[in-house]
Amino acid sequence: MNIGKPGIWASDGGLVRDEPPALARDAWSPRRSLGARLALYLVPVAVIPALIYWVLVDRETDAAEQRLLEALVADAHRQEERALRGEADDKVRVIGDATRRLETIARRAAVETARALEAGPETDAPPEPLLDEPGGPLRTARAGVSVGLVSRRAASTREARRDLAATRRLEAPFVALGLGPLDVAAIEVQTASGVMRIVPGRPLMAGGKTIVGPDFAFPSGESRPLLALPPTDGPAPVAWSRVYEDDYSGAGRIVTAVVLVRGGDGRPVAEVGVDWAFERLFESPPDPGRPDDAEILVSEDGAVLLAAPPGVLGDEDLRALSEALRAKGTGDLETELAGRPFLVAARRFPDLRWIYAKVSPRASLEKRVRAELDPILAAGRGRRAELRLLYLAVILGLSAALVVVTRRALAPVRRVARAADALASGLPIGEAAGLDREDEVGRLFRAMRNVERRVRWRMASMEGVHRLAQTAALMTRPDETLAQLARQIAQLVGAGKAWLALWDPATRSLAGAPPGYGIPEDALRGVRIGLEDSSLTMTVYRTGETALGNDLSDPRLAAALLDRLGVRDNYVFAPLKAEAGVLGVLGVADKPGGFDLEDQAAIEGYAGQAALLLRNARLYEELQRSYERLRDAQRNRDYFLQNVNHELRTPLTAILGWSEVLAEDRPDKETVRIAVDQINRSAQFLLALISDLLDLSRFEEGRTRLEPEEVDLGPLVAGAVEPVSVMAEAKGIVMTVETPAEPTPVRLDPMRMRQVLWNLVHNAVKFTPKAGRIRVEASADDTGVTFSVADNGVGVEAKDLPFIFDRFRQVDGSSTRAYRGMGIGLALAKAYVELHGGTIAVESQVGRGTAFRVRIPRTASTGNSGVQRNVAT
After folding, report:
1. Which of 172, 190, 167 is nearest to 274 (CA)?
2. What is the pLDDT of residues 86-118, one digit of tens each?
């Protein structure tokens, strides 16, 4: 789109010169002064039109106030609806998260129950005597962490006695599971043999009656649907009970998550129930800004389970709301309760068979809006009354001063007014007969013509900026964005060519940013203009000032670059200015007829818009990279915490356990020797873990430095493998080490390379079964040194191979994994190899083993993990 700019012309086609100031002697000349003609011809202004205007303005103002109130109320309604939907969705997410955490607790309790029943009674635990109280089952007499119950029908069976003693193992795990952020009232297990164990231990009486029947039976009503489901390798299915009062723990209304426990043969042997006091999720204080809002829970059959805060909705309102939810279902709906409109945001929980609703009254919202708006409107009405009186006084004064106005004097004014209306409406003014005058009317009309031309030019320029921003912002690829920017800018000013050169901090130069517009496809590729270059493009970048030329005579123009771009006639170079500084230079060239100052102003505006778009694109890319780094850091943190929890717990448990034995049991010398040996080995294991963590920390901070020296390859490998060979012998693993028979000097950091080989061989021993094979090889040639460690162990699945060198990652990341380790060894090995400038690769097949191959070049890095430099060996 090419925008032509007209000059400033008179109606007869001649160029308008600046008007000289009117002479003092002509100030009251009727020929040259419109004020003089108005004083001679205008009639006094009547008061009646002013009064009519007054009444109409008052009426329109009142209507505007009413429309403003209606608009504010409607907007407040929309905001209230969005807020209510958001709060309902947030509460649904909270309840959903809580149910999932409760299901996790129930599944973990089921796992602990299966282990306890399989392990049987603790050998050193005293037996629990049973009390026979009328009207209830047999219960344990010991008051403590739990209470055990035995059904009267199963009291004499051997299985019941065994399960009663075995379930005592569940006290500590159940207490730990109940100490989380959820409000768990109790955890109970009921076995198929007729035994029930409840944590915590509380009295079983409520209202003078026992809360457990004398002949409770397995399965319960909640777990029967689970019996019909086939056993699965995934998470155990969970059944939810109805909502009922907690007579045992006194936690109010609760719901129980039930999980079936199966034995090793797949038969159901017990069920676990976790009581959730869900009412406490609704105990937060009401919002002072919306005190009439309420929350309710309704079952699928319409029973009201909970209403919070209490008393906000009456019983009739709750019944009506329950019927509305049953009739209309979930979603966002409006209903009337006791004649008052309410907005309801309802959501369904399929697993719990609940419906949650957030309720807000409509009337209180309109009252709040009116209370806020009335003082503002009252002040406006008072000010308007004062202005009416002032207006009336002014009209009366002017009416007394004005004179009769003739048709001849008003005619040019009307024509100018029509021209002004056309200008305001965006229509062309056109030619107006009789306005080619020397007085103020003629000068005003000519000025309006010039303003019209300039306004149309400015509007077209602003439309171009808008289209430029709108079009470029829709682009997703950098090259597409650059192409659109260049094409749009060139077309907006009517030029044949446009391109961009962007600042590259890495090379401290302006780099051509292909593709451009109107230039050869590869003309900008490889173009770089250094900071010390004296070219016009670099001058514009350094000074931030636009350069314009309608010929190519400027000596600062790079002739080779202009020839490469095909520039022939004229040019404009404008800096791409953003808040962070100048991002580069915009070049526009070869406009027919040449560039002028209007073109320069337009191009500078387009350059500013292009700089803003480029800056936003760079910020978006940086945000994406920061998000990826943050996500990697969070993932590594999760892996680290998971592995630290698993790896530190085992040695610490051994140290604490043997310490208690030494402190309390007065053991014999042999026991003391075993205890000291176990404590020493556990402490050494902890020391190794901490050492690995410190090594990794130093590497991340850039403080790990290589200290290369010339060593013999064979002794280096033997010294690294020897400490692990004892572990291999203990497992009956055959380890073969092959190194050059002749002395082979290599230049490496021996300590770091021993750590690499030790970690690889230790990893092979750990994952190779008894009587397996491990082969360690080392060789050197003119280009570098090669190490390989291969085993016939368990191997790694193909999906896990890309992550095998990630820190804190384990192929088996569960808390019950068979192989110890924090996932640091292979990460450190890879880091030290790359610090040497080398590479490490792995190949593996499940069940057939794993092979690592390390290659260190003869030219290796001797820097640190932050900055590296190369030296020849």
Report:
1. 190
2. 888 888 888 888 888 998 999 999 999 989 989
Give, in degrees to the nearest 5, the angle at Cα 49 between 44 and 52: 155
- 3-state SS of 204-224 is CEECCEECCCCCCCCCCCCCH
Burial call 423-436: b when 16+ CB within 10 Å, e when fewer: beeeeebeebeebe
- Written as six digits, the tokens of 812 are 């088996």
| Residues ≥6 apart with Cβ < 8 Å to 449 | 9, 11, 429
- Sequence-ordered alpha helix ranges (H) in 313-362: 315-328
What order do you get walking across the sheet with 304-308 strand by strand? Answer: 304-308, 294-299, 354-361, 340-349, 331-337
Instruction: Report cis status (omega within 30 of 0) of the bond before 520.
Output: no
State the helix-helix crossing angle for 47-119 and 171-178, rounded to 10 degrees: 170
Write down the H helix ranges in 132-223: 158-166, 171-178
Alpha carbon distance 730, 737 (integer Å): 18
pTM tops 0.70, yes or no:
no
Dump pLDDT digits (tens) for 510-557: 888 788 888 887 888 878 888 888 888 889 888 888 999 888 888 888
d(CA 484, CA 491): 11
Quote the pLDDT of residue 20.
41
C-alpha–C-alpha distance, residues 386 and 393, integer Å:
11
Beta-strand ranges (E) seen in 627-742 are 709-712, 734-738
Element of type H or E holding 497: strand 497-504
HEC sequence for 122-138: CCCCCCCCEEECCCCCE
CA–CA distance, 730 with 723 (Å, rounded to integer): 12
> For 186-219, what is each residue's pLDDT tens digit?
999 999 888 999 988 888 877 777 888 888 888 8
Helix H or strand E segment including 691: helix 669-700
The length of the chain, given as a count of residues: 873
